[in-house]
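Journal club prep — side note

Before the paper discussion, L.F. wants everyone to see what a predicted structure for a comparable chain looks like in token form. Sequence:
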Amino acid sequence: MQEFGIDLGTANTVVCDSTEGVVLDEPSVMLTRAGFPRRGVVAVGREACELLGRSPAGVYPVRPLQDGVITDLESARLYLRSVLHRIAPNPWGRARMRAAIGVPVGATTLERRALLEAADEAGIHRACALPEPIAGAIGCGIDPLERRAHLVVDVGGGTAEATSFCYGGILAHRSCRVAGDEMTLAVTHHLREQHQILIGELTAEQVKIQASTADGPSLVVQGRDAGTGRPRLATLEVNELNEVVRPVIDGIIQTLAACLDELPPQATCDILADGVALFGGGSLICRFGDSLERAFGFPVKLAERPLTCVAEGATLSLHNPDLLHSYASPSG
């Protein structure tokens, strides 16, 4: 039997096989061609992402998830089916497949049901929805069933969540549906308003990442001049770009810090000793961990594999029935 952990994120989809490790790590985007009665899938994942902003007429980009949850069942079903064919091309293997799929803690019952329904229609008949912070904690080597409180922060593309848990239950939780995507939008707006240069979504994402990892004081951005429409290069200070995303980061942290108000005193002692585990793509942006540590007052530890630990932890959870019973929502 094939067993998979799936991190179905707003920005990226990561799939981990129980025996082979990470087998898929690509953008959560799909290109479809309009048609009646069914839409056709043109490209999925990295291939689709490379065509964003340059796709021909009649081909439309689709993001199956918004804010970490499914908003359109048909798009999600098409996307999941395409992912499923990538990771399990053998129909016999798909029929015997078992999966744990990450879902935000703040997702509603209807949103969880939509996820499992889309997975079932795509061919994943034995699936459960596992909270992403719990899956990420498992991927970081934390046992959510032990008699000790833990606190993790998961910053993805569509959501950011702070979750404390102990002995199979959630102690405190705060979520914010403002995360990495809003940082990208902030970069796009800043370049348009302050530098009169227009850039696409892919370029804005690259600029955001480069500003966080650049060794030099500046970087070059290529785009279109807002006034003349001609191609133009602009040299921007790294500090300037980091300051652009700073208000978004501060807003996220303020929301997540409210989780601390719900913590029992004894739990606070545990977390002070063990620290806060930080993961998700947004955790790599602009010294996010340092800002979080100053706001929380706890030591913050960035996960060794912040981009894949949710999928890895979801896979490990499939071998722990007690953990699934405590945290997971089963299909059906």
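L.F.'s comment for the group: The chain has three domains: 3-135+310-330, 146-178+247-307, 180-244. Keep this in mind when we get to the figures.
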